[in-house]
Amino acid sequence: MAAKVKIFAGRTSKYLGEKIAQAYGTELGKMSVISFADGEFQPSFDENIRGTDVFLIQSTFTPADNLMELLMMIDAARRASARTIVAVIPYFGFARQDRKDKPRVSIASKLVANLLMAAGVNRIITLDLHADQIQGFFDVPVDHLYASSVFIPYIKTLHLDNLTFASPDTGGTRRAGSYAKFFHTDFVICYKHRAKPNEIAKMALLGDVKGKNVILLDDIVDTGGTLCKAAKVLMENGADSVRAMITHPLLSSNALENIENSTLEELIVTDTIPSQKESPKIKIITTADLFAEVINRLKKKESISSLFKF
């Protein structure tokens, strides 16, 4: 007899966990977290999970308590004799630290992978990793999903003429190229030079956007500095309109102010991170159906890659 699936969510991802469980056709599992006076906490499963396939939903954005909570949930599930433990990490934090870009620094994303495996995870499901090579940091299977499966249907509803895609930096060239290939259109690149983190000294445009409706693509929007600067450069070079599609809306510091004062017509994001800042320019598209379908396919031992013909 096949093992039963149970879905649980950490505190900061409960809003998404409830939607994923509903889309899968079940209720979110019962768990609680005891908090102590000194800030220490203790997650606990409030129902039997022995012999079940457990899916733990938790994005690991700051603070680091979110990562620690996920590690403790994995450890608790292992000690409670779950059959398999799958960490569903919609936003994989510390992914921007995937290499040594200067001497004497940590490769934090590798450290996080080590911690997850040491805790006892059997599989990882995540969405739009900042760097594809992070999959190789794990010695367990990683299902790397793509936000294109929720963004592309929305793009089609816009019915934009003279559509062109853009990357706000050279690192996103492959993403922009993939969208352009799917829609049989062009793409351009914004080349940036940083004076220091979150501060751009110079940005130039590679390509022609005159008379085009442009969609900027990226995996993370943090302070929004790069995004807003890129939108300004595109409009200055003759674009008719500029929208942005960003998977993970960190929206740190004065990001909301930057976006509202920018030339961006619209910012489309997913719900991998809870929305704490509202703006008429920001549209949120849910990933719940996508994650629920992946869980369903894992349960039925069906192909996941076929979801991403893109």
Tell the overall outline: globular
Beta-strand portion reads: 25-35%
Number of helices: 8
Order of neighbouring strands in the sheet with most strands: 10-9-8-11-12-13-14
SS content category: alpha/beta
Main sheet: strands, sense, barrel: 7 strands, mixed
Q: What is the string of helix and strand elements?
A: EHEEEHEHEEHEHEEEHEHEEH
| Terminus-to-terminus distance | 35 Å
Helix amount = 25-40%
Low-confidence stretches: none
Tell me the number of strands.
Answer: 14
Rg (CA only): 20 Å
What is the average of the pLDDT values?
94
Note down, in words, how this protein is organized.
- The model has no long low-confidence stretch (mean pLDDT 94).
- Strands 10-9-8-11-12-13-14 form a 7-stranded mixed beta sheet. Strands 1-4-5-6-7 form a 5-stranded parallel beta sheet, sandwiched between helices.
- It has 8 helices and 14 strands.
- Helix 1 packs across helix 8.
- The protein has 310 residues and is an alpha/beta fold.
Keywords:
alpha/beta, 5-stranded parallel sheet, 310 residues, globular, 8 helices, 7-stranded mixed sheet, 14 strands
